[in-house]
Amino acid sequence: MERELRLPHSTLDLDRAGRIGQPEVIYGEGKTAAHIADALEAIAAAGGFAFATRVRAETAAAVGEQLGGRAVYSADARVLCLGTPPVPVGQVGVVSAGTSDEAVAAEVERCAELLGNGVLRVRDVGVAGLHRVLARAEELRACSVVVVVAGMDGALPSVVGGLVACPVIAVPTSVGYGASFGGVAALLAMLNSCAPGVTVVNIDNGFGAAYAASRVNLGRVNP
Amino acid sequence: MERELRLPHSTLDLDRAGRIGQPEVIYGEGKTAAHIADALEAIAAAGGFAFATRVRAETAAAVGEQLGGRAVYSADARVLCLGTPPVPVGQVGVVSAGTSDEAVAAEVERCAELLGNGVLRVRDVGVAGLHRVLARAEELRACSVVVVVAGMDGALPSVVGGLVACPVIAVPTSVGYGASFGGVAALLAMLNSCAPGVTVVNIDNGFGAAYAASRVNLGRVNP
Amino acid sequence: MERELRLPHSTLDLDRAGRIGQPEVIYGEGKTAAHIADALEAIAAAGGFAFATRVRAETAAAVGEQLGGRAVYSADARVLCLGTPPVPVGQVGVVSAGTSDEAVAAEVERCAELLGNGVLRVRDVGVAGLHRVLARAEELRACSVVVVVAGMDGALPSVVGGLVACPVIAVPTSVGYGASFGGVAALLAMLNSCAPGVTVVNIDNGFGAAYAASRVNLGRVNP
Amino acid sequence: MERELRLPHSTLDLDRAGRIGQPEVIYGEGKTAAHIADALEAIAAAGGFAFATRVRAETAAAVGEQLGGRAVYSADARVLCLGTPPVPVGQVGVVSAGTSDEAVAAEVERCAELLGNGVLRVRDVGVAGLHRVLARAEELRACSVVVVVAGMDGALPSVVGGLVACPVIAVPTSVGYGASFGGVAALLAMLNSCAPGVTVVNIDNGFGAAYAASRVNLGRVNP
Amino acid sequence: MERELRLPHSTLDLDRAGRIGQPEVIYGEGKTAAHIADALEAIAAAGGFAFATRVRAETAAAVGEQLGGRAVYSADARVLCLGTPPVPVGQVGVVSAGTSDEAVAAEVERCAELLGNGVLRVRDVGVAGLHRVLARAEELRACSVVVVVAGMDGALPSVVGGLVACPVIAVPTSVGYGASFGGVAALLAMLNSCAPGVTVVNIDNGFGAAYAASRVNLGRVNP
Amino acid sequence: MERELRLPHSTLDLDRAGRIGQPEVIYGEGKTAAHIADALEAIAAAGGFAFATRVRAETAAAVGEQLGGRAVYSADARVLCLGTPPVPVGQVGVVSAGTSDEAVAAEVERCAELLGNGVLRVRDVGVAGLHRVLARAEELRACSVVVVVAGMDGALPSVVGGLVACPVIAVPTSVGYGASFGGVAALLAMLNSCAPGVTVVNIDNGFGAAYAASRVNLGRVNP
Amino acid sequence: MERELRLPHSTLDLDRAGRIGQPEVIYGEGKTAAHIADALEAIAAAGGFAFATRVRAETAAAVGEQLGGRAVYSADARVLCLGTPPVPVGQVGVVSAGTSDEAVAAEVERCAELLGNGVLRVRDVGVAGLHRVLARAEELRACSVVVVVAGMDGALPSVVGGLVACPVIAVPTSVGYGASFGGVAALLAMLNSCAPGVTVVNIDNGFGAAYAASRVNLGRVNP
Amino acid sequence: MERELRLPHSTLDLDRAGRIGQPEVIYGEGKTAAHIADALEAIAAAGGFAFATRVRAETAAAVGEQLGGRAVYSADARVLCLGTPPVPVGQVGVVSAGTSDEAVAAEVERCAELLGNGVLRVRDVGVAGLHRVLARAEELRACSVVVVVAGMDGALPSVVGGLVACPVIAVPTSVGYGASFGGVAALLAMLNSCAPGVTVVNIDNGFGAAYAASRVNLGRVNP
User: Fold this and answer.
1) Hey, are the CB atoms on A165 and B200 less than 8 Å from each other?
2) Which chain A residues are Cβ-neighbours of G179 within 8 angstroms?
3) C-alpha of D205 from chain center
4) Does the pLDDT of residue C1 top 50, yes or no?
5) Element housing D9 (H / E)
6) How far apart are CA G59 and CA G37, in angstroms?
7) Residue A142 CB: number of other CB atoms within 10 A?
């Protein structure tokens, strides 16, 4: 029988790790510090470790206070964790196109680490200066899976998808203005990538890309 | 140095298999029989095997004539192949929501096979009758990667994503009418899946999903 | 002849209860406290009871002052009422997918109560952990009508629509980011639900869903 | 345990009537005559009665041949049924705005009848000549539920929603051109109806509206 | 030869009144008080009268100071004028659907007056309570032109268009939420009005509607 | 009391001429020849004259046969009329941007004539060669109302709106390809016209523009 | 004074070559053979040379007959010309991403030639196999202007824009399916190109790109 | 070999000037003062000159402090430069439609200057008063390239494109409200311009237009 925990404001799915190999992760956007702290404690109590994404700095500080300083906050990734994360295995490549995509790339990297994956960082290698990504191709070919983060024209995953054999997961970012429509231009470009087998997650969904990459990497490391 | 072949109408990328582990596949939509036949021969000559997707029955027949009957056509998947496909290894699960999604599911299955993967078929298990997909959960948990094909509300990948630990790739189909907007409703639902780590390909892109699944499965079988 | 009341800023439809069985309800968004207070008094004077939706806390406080503390405010639902609400009869099920959908679910519940309906609350039972909603199926089958509140992929109404025989009303919420487009993804998924006979209201329209549910429940309890 | 039937091309949900009170109905669009005939027979064998929607005249003729003339076809509604439909009870009002909305209105009416409901027809009463719908208000007030079918500006449900107390279900039609965007204008107008408690189904989804109306009417007649 | 005036920040079209019968009007949104004051003075100097729309209260106060108190501000319409407006002739009907549409209706009314038209105000007569607009039909039939202001479902112009013989100009407002998409739902409904000969202006464009109405009314009064 | 006529397939509004000064006009799209013929006869019987728009040549021929040759068909405008049209008075200017807009311009012209208006034709005067429209400005200034028909960039109404004092009604056409989106580009440009007081009708709605122009012109000629 | 020629169906702008350096070109889509033939003759009579785009093969044949075989048709580009084209000078690079973009690339090339430009063809060099375009970089750097034609992800202009110093004009094509939305994905990617100074024309507008390139090249060759 | 510089937060492309003739320019939106200052110094160190766009006044002040006052800020254009800009050659015409488009026009002008081009300013010459732009036609014909900046209906580039022979680059601005959709209306109008050979950049992309114009002008001045 499945275990679930009914808190006043949520019904936690405590058996998710058993079912799908990874814990329930808390989406912090719009939640109160108390809510996040309670959920972190409940999940960590059941599995030894928990984390929340999209946590603003002030909220993180308030959660930290409630938890007596046991929570660790990564400001650039806006991720807050409680307990001892797993030892990283394998390697997930995280490639980003421009300096403006850094926040999303940081979310991918931190979440991938907390889900138990090693990470290779390759930043600011947009296609308007191709030599930058070409110079890193060998390193990327050594990864189990590559996550490509790009806004604006969303062109980088098509280039990377033609350079590596492993799965490529594209994350459109909301970076841009005008006809970028908050990341829609990049999203559509990625869905229409001319490199075969590129898959896509929601705009700015760094966590989702990390989770998907983790499904690949952990299955590959421990098939 | 990279090898490429300039035909009158295209520039074939003969080293793609070397670079990304799988051959260039011909997108047959809107191409003439002569064009497809030439390209199949050129790729098969370089690597022993080639195939084309989105080939209509009449075009397939004409290609067959030009190639002296050596090409094999899968009518439901609209895929045409030349030469000896690789021996399938591992297992890709292909789940579809309704009978109307069958054409896209068939493209996923046939392409996955031709790219060297074993396939498990699970058809017509939409969420309005949940017991149908729940009855197949064990089989799906034994796969390296699961492709979920659905039109209309695109709800099935969220359910499957909560049942298995391996990568889940969602394919929206253009099945539906009115506010399905040719598959956009399903596409958006999948991009916003509440199950973490579901990735998405373009509407009706059965080939792309198969290719992505193959990147996962082959990397897992031969890490 | 129809009665109407011309206030300086609005023309109240005092016979609506006579015509369609339920009173005119005040939409508080963007209205001043004075405007809301006047309208509440006018409607309550005509029928003994009145309420307003989408009232911010500060506005509610100001209205309360003008009305001498006679108004009751439900903070989570942002609903303000004046006078004695009807005794609830029958039962409306209100199911929500995630903790982020709570505000809309609260509006549904409070409005349904104030319109004279009993309410069954089922919260945070999204489809990525199916056992949560399956565990509540029997309770839902005992309702006259079920309102399902969900953002992101909008998948829950399709699952609930396959579990109960009574009318199912879906409320998309604006919860999400990126390609959720402020609730459009959930709205489209619900309009394309694979469960037959699911109907839909506007994004975040908890009041509208409650009103529609009330049209069903009261007609069923007093046919 | 749930019963299901695996045909070569579909998995029929034979217990749906038990679970949600009404049988699985076949969506005929894009299905072959053989497929439709097989499914009709299987469902009718399990429950005594079955029908399919969106069946073209030629397909209906071919199904009729396979079933030895036992199927009955309603050409205006494009609905094909097999076996003895239930005796109609209660009354569903079906109101349409213009002569161009007739095909969708016919689908609503025929499906409502086949699902066991009585039907009141009110046609071509668009709001540019208000006296036409006002003349029918009393008849509509006697219904358990009213379905309003309209294209173009989608204004009729707002008028009807202000005239009756029972549930009002709006069906946008794809009638129109230019900025009607295949029914989107009407759909949006209906989702934003100024009459409270109007619910909406997909564009041209006459079947869905009938099914939803049937959930209301049958629950009201046999609470 | 056409006269124009090059200010540091704009090129005023001083002969517009000569060419098209009405003066250039200043669009105040985003302009500084100094810019508005200069332009008002220049136009008023050329023609005796000038006004600006979309002027915030603080900006109006600042302009007033610069002009030594000679400017008159209408707060509800956000219109600021300088000099003596023309004596109103004829009658423009201005009908609004809900109390939330009041700001736009006020802009229509004030601009119509300042352009030299008499105005009949009919407010808060939405179609969910039809008797309200029907009670005013005779008054509306006495106007030269009717402007109808509505948000949400945009249904009111279709009803008014069926009641009067004169030109009907529809103004969609951005009132609403969710699938109203900032007035797009109302705009589309109005463009698809089932009442023939309804014309439409941009969302919230009260000034444009007043100007168009003025083109009709003044041409009718002085043909 | 209002007169209406219930035909088998429609409810004709015979008092519309009394209420709004102009007869009900039949929208021929998708209607059968028999339906159109019946409706023409019924309206002509009540008022001496009737016409239908969007009638294909073959349908017109079939209607002609049923009516014994009494109907007159204008092929370029696709308009079919029965009985003696009114004597034209006043003058409606009809300006079109390119030769591809001719079909819509013809509908405007023919409908305006049949509704009793004189017509001035000014064709193929797009803004890429400004001298063409400038050469006709004097003629246009003599009209009571000007209808401007344009596809693609929809720029012509902004130019004409700056040249004349009378009402200007813009008709976007679906002429174009790619990012014209079936006339949406022209529609948006017209709704955002920088010339004040331009009003807009639906894409390709030549009839609606003529009807609106007729509301203006007839009111001006007989105020 | 400007010369113009009023044909029965169009008003030709005979002085355009004088004003903007290049002749009026006939847009053949939807025009009859007679219309095209008349216009070609009129323009060629005024300037010695004329051509029409988007002419179908059958129409071209009919025009050819009317003109006594003097017209020359380029089937792949669907361009028909009459008279002696100018001698090409300078060099316009035309780069296309995939074999499916060939038809648009052919229109660019043929129109550029007929407008008096030399052309360098670089075909089928999409970014999934980067070495193909890198191998041609030197040749492209020798051009005065480069036109890049691409569908699907529209990534190629960003790569080319980073390789050359001259103007880069991007043409999105409608090639693709699903979320390519008829070329919108490519259009948006190009408008958001990360390579600075890339400009864009309408989807499939090969003629427009050629004309723009010609404005650059001819101005550069004869400044 | 290509030179690149890896700063902590970005990978600068120092050889871009060598490859494409113009330096990498820093996009300041969302970057910190420290980041901008570091990048300006690095690029200026490599090439003697650097600039950043979209820099807010406060950020510019902070950068100025870090750089010891050596940076020059243009407030209206929001551009910040370091070092000695090139001597301007040739002439780029910059035409804007309304006073609200001034900010974008200023960005075009300043960037064009800093990239080494002479600039001709023509402001506030919208098409509703045509004489304003016609009066400047001769000056525009003397430019190497013309940039046209317009919001709302985006009509001005079509008029200018018919007046000059040189390249015309259109910049849609986000000026407007309602159905301008943040500049989409102007963007679409420009993509569909009836004047041949107009090219378009992203909404509000003044920098991109200047860069594209510079590619044209510098190539023309030094072919």
Assistant:
1) no
2) 188, 191-192
3) 7
4) no
5) none
6) 10
7) 11
**B155: three-class secondary structure by DSSP:** coil
Which residue does chain F place closest to G182, by CA atoms? F178
Count CB-CB contacts under 10 A for residue D84: 9
Question: How many Cβ pairs closer than 8 A exist between chain D and E?
Answer: 122
Q: What's residue H152's pLDDT? A: 94
Burial of residue H102 (number of CB atoms within 10 Å: 0-12, 13-18, 19+): buried
* Contact between residue D48 and residue D17 where contact means Cβ atoms under 8 Å apart: no
E28 to chain H, any CB pair closer than 8 A? The answer is no
Containing B120, the helix (H) or strand (E) segment is strand B117-122
DSSP state of G174: -
D220 vs C22, C198, C220: nearest CB? C220
Contact H181 F188 (CB under 8 A): yes
C-alpha to C-alpha distance for C181 and C184, rounded to whole angstroms: 5
Q: Residue D1 pLDDT more than 50?
A: no
CA distance C190 to C198: 8
| Whole-number percent of chain E with pLDDT over 90 | 76
Region E62-70 average pLDDT: 92
DSSP annotation of D140 reads: H
Residue G138 CB burial class (10 angstroms; 0-12, 13-18, ≥19): exposed
Query: Chain F contacts of H159, Cβ < 8 Å?
Result: 127-128, 130, 155, 159
Question: Is-contact D83 D50, C-beta < 8 A?
Answer: yes
Which residue shows structure tokens 């239930």? D86
Is E176 in contact with D161 (Cβ distance < 8 A)?
no
Q: Chain D 131-190, CB below 8 Å of chain C: which residues?
A: 144-145, 161-169, 187
Other C-beta atoms lying within 10 Å of the C-beta of residue F90: 22
Residues 60-99 on C with a CB inside 8 Å of A are 98-99
Tell whether C194 lies on the interface with B, counting CB pairs under 8 A. Answer: yes
Number of A/C CB contacts below 8 angstroms equals 49
CB H108 within 8 A of CB H82: no
pLDDT for the residue D22: 78
Per DSSP, H95 falls in state: E
Buried b or exposed e, range G146-183, using 16+ CB within 10 angstroms = bbbbbbbbbbbbbbbbbbbbbbbbbbbbbbbbbbbbbb
The number of residues making up chain G comes to 223
Cβ contact C159–B154 (<8 Å): no
Alpha-carbon distance H201 to A188, whole Å? 18
Are A20 and B162 an interchain contact pair (Cβ–Cβ within 8 Å)? yes
Q: Is E48 left (phi over 0), alpha (psi -120 to 50) or beta?
A: left
Note whether C2 contacts E: Cβ–Cβ < 8 A.
Answer: yes
- Structure tokens belonging to residue G64: 């050819």
Closest alpha carbon within chain G to F106 = G9
> For the whole model, what pTM was predicted?
0.95
Of C4, H49, E191, B164, the residue nearest F191 (C-alpha): E191
The mean pLDDT value for E126-143 works out to: 93
Query: In this complex, is the C-beta atom of B194 within 8 Å of any C-beta atom belonging to chain C?
Result: yes
Nearest Cα neighbor of H70 from H82, H60, H59, H79 is: H82
For residue B184, what is the nearest residue in chain G, using CA coordinates? G179
What letter does residue E130 receive in the DSSP assignment?
A: T
Ramachandran sector of residue B100 (left: φ over 0; alpha: ψ -120 to 50; beta: rest): alpha
Q: Average pLDDT, whole number, for chain A?
A: 91
pLDDT grade, residue F1 (50/70/90)?
A: very low
Mutate to test the interface with H, among G199, G202, G220 (most CBs of H within 10 A): G199
Is residue G207 a contact partner of residue G94, using CB atoms and an 8 Å limit?
no
Could you count the other beta carbons within 10 Å of the beta carbon of residue D170? 30
Quick: pLDDT tens for G16-61. Answer: 666 767 778 999 998 999 999 999 999 888 878 999 999 999 999 9
